[in-house]
Amino acid sequence: MSSTPSASNALVNATHDPGLKSWVESANDPATDFPIQNLALCAFHAEHNGHAHDHLGVVIGDQVLDLGTLVGAGVFADDEALAYLMHLPRWNMLASAPKYWPVVRSRIQSLLNAESHAGQQLRRVRAKALRPLSQTPLVMPMHIGDYTDFYASIHHATNVGAMFRPDNPLLPNYRHVPIGYHGRASSITTAGGGAGDTTSVRRPKGQTKADDAAAPTFGPCKMLDYEMELGAYIGAGNAMGDAIPFDQAAQHLFGVCLVNDWSARDVQKWEYQPLGPFLAKNFATTLSPMIVTMEALAPFRVPGPERGEGDPQPLEYLRGGENWGLDIKVEVWLRSEQMRERGMSPVMLSRGNFRHMYWTVAQMVVHHASNGCNMVPGDLIASGTISGPDKASRGCLLELTWDGNGPDGKPKPRVPVHLPTGETRTFLADGDEVIMKGYAEREGYRRIGLGECRGRIEPAA
Ligand code: MN
Description:
- Helices cover about 15% and strands about 25% of the residues.
- By secondary structure, it is an alpha+beta fold.
- It folds into two domains: about 5-140, Fumarylacetoacetase, N-terminal domain (SH3 type barrels), CATH 2.30.30; about 145-460, Fumarylacetoacetase-like, C-terminal domain (Fumarylacetoacetate hydrolase, domain 2, Alpha-Beta Complex).
- Strands 6, 7, 8, 13, 14, 16, 17 and 22 form an eight-stranded mixed sheet that branches. A five-stranded antiparallel sheet has the order 4-3-2-1-5.
- Strand 10 (about 205-210) and strand 11 form a beta hairpin.
- The chain is globular.
- About 45% of the residues are buried.
- Mean pLDDT is about 95; it is low at about 1-5.
- Manganese (II) ion binds near residues 149, 261 and 385.
């Protein structure tokens, strides 16, 4: 029945066996994002016995396994620490304790395994702890104290640089330093759990100035955009003053999610120099609600990106032996208000792959702590827009509707995206819903997915 994965990947173990099946039938559907090899973590709002609080859960097929309920029923009574970790409202405590990561993964997998030997009572308890994902109100799985956004795609950096600074697109530090800025955690929300679950994002207002205008004005953003990014949750923290050595990066990276870093491009263009993004970015950031652990991603680890000829090698502190590239495909879909009213399905705008990023998540976390900055369990580091070498893989409208620069060195008129209703988009319109998806697949392994990240634009106040 079970087959041994063929790749020589030391991080792969028995929990990734593609032959494993769950007694939750929907988890065995080849198309699901959440087979028993994934075990994505979530948190949800639970109401019972007249009171409400948040429970932790694991997504399995189209169901959520309610861990809080299992703790209450004594399922983890043999392991006090495990029972404690499983009945908290968020995953930060587990993130802080890497030695429990494999314990939780194997314990939950055996609870869900079709071939586990469960007595009648345990079968009854675990079946009772299942609830349909589509009817489960997911909440943020982690308390995010701090949020940092990187700029790790050299293709994105070069395209955007060419628009904003035609004579100087890629700044000289790019190939040496993982560039980032400190974002804002208070405006991070999550949606994309159940059917139709979506975040409302109000169109921001801001200060903008057209190139030919004499003075700036204040009003609703006219160039509202999404950015398709991957987020990584920090695992163990480091003490303030201590760096994270590259060979210890693994214990500081807990898992990943999809990130939509909503961006007001007209605001950004006017405000970003000299200190970088501010109000163009901090009005909203939307995450997919599940955490796919680094353990679940083990089969999809690949070598970091090849550096181009003449590119400098990263400095010593940013180098290490493990395969830190992640072979994760990401897609952006759009559905306008009109498409929704006419019952039309979303259309795909782009598809990229995280493996093309110039900097890996390990390099991001190691660089972040290299000056002694303390990372805290549950902090979020986002990758920056995931854009690849070809046009179809550009992860934001700013790049997707850019047609290159003309002979005068300035960007040519934008080429809008066409929707099946006949509508066109250069940037987002009110009522537009942006849906991001991510998944990993590889010969010899079970496909796993990151779920969805959904958000819809509401008119400005
Ligand atoms: Mn960004």
